[in-house]
């Protein structure tokens, strides 16, 4: 029993410590009328799933991807943040026109955006998951993967509930989509800085 609880405890601490900042990004996505809840859920699960898969492969091959290369993904949130700022600056609000909203929500672009932002913000996930997976059995790794799936649902549910909260929801919906571009840009810059990705261009 203690062994099982230990695996659950480690998985919960791993996920929470590496995804706490995702809550703020998810709040912005849910508050943005351009994004449908289904797109955010799919994109988040794809991003977390890819991070989990890379960490498993890396641990099995005893391979650690250089942080500087992982940091290149930091350009993704910067790009999406700048694009959203340009849309806001030019008065492009997909929520104002139902037809435009439907058109913007129809494609897979929003899913890709959420997935890439999740991946870009996942450098710490890889650095934490890989060494821990390397010391665990396949059964433990699979168990942790299932726990991550449940915790991802909790993360999504918490963000969605806050956006739709009777008191907190209104200001989040009103200002959240205007704040998220800045959050994404800062997030991307922090990723590039912490991963020392700039050194790749100095060599």
What attributes does this structure have?
78% helix; 203 residues; mainly alpha
Can you offer a commentary on this structure?
- By secondary structure, the protein is mainly α.
- The chain has one domain (2-202).
- It is 78% helix and 0% strand.
- Helix 1 packs antiparallel against helix 8, helix 3 crosses helix 8 (123-133) and helix 5 (75-89) packs across helix 10.
Present the secondary structure layout.
Layout: H1 2-19, H2 22-31, H3 37-60, H4 67-70, H5 75-89, H6 98-106, H7 109-120, H8 123-133, H9 138-163, H10 169-194, H11 199-202
Helix pairs in contact: 1-8, 1-9, 2-9, 2-10, 3-7, 3-8, 3-9, 5-7, 5-10
Order of helices and strands: HHHHHHHHHHH
In whole angstroms, how far apart are the ends? 52 Å
Mean pLDDT: 79
**How much beta, percentage-wise?**
under 5%
Principal-axis shape: globular
Computed Rg: 18 Å
Low-confidence stretches are: 94-101
Counting structural domains, the number is: 1
Helix count from the secondary structure assignment: 11
Number of strands: 0
- The helical percent reads over 70%
Largest sheet, described in full? none
Structural class: mainly alpha
């Amino acid at each position: 029993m203690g062994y099982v609880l230990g695996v659950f405890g480690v998985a919960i601490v791993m996920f929470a410590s590496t995804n706490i900042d995702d809550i703020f990004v998810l709040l912005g996505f849910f508050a943005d009328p351009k994004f449908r809840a289904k797109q955010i859920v799919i994109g988040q699960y794809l991003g977390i799933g890819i991070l989990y898969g890379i960490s498993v492969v890396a641990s099995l091959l005893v391979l650690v991807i250089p942080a500087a290369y992982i940091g290149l993904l930091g350009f993704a949130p910067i790009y999406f943040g700048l694009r959203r700022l340009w849309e806001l600056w030019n008065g492009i609000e997909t929520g104002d026109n139902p037809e435009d909203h439907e058109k913007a929500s129809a494609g897979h672009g929003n899913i890709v955006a959420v997935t890439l932002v999740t991946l870009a913000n996942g450098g710490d996930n890889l650095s934490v998951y890989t060494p821990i997976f390397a010391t665990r059995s396949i059964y433990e790794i699979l168990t942790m993967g299932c726990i991550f799936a449940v915790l991802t649902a909790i993360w999504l549910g918490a963000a969605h509930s806050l956006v739709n909260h009777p008191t907190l929801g209104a200001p989040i919906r009103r200002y959240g989509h205007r704040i998220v571009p800045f959050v994404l840009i800062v997030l991307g810059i922090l990723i590039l800085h912490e991963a020392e990705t700039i050194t790749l261009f100095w060599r």
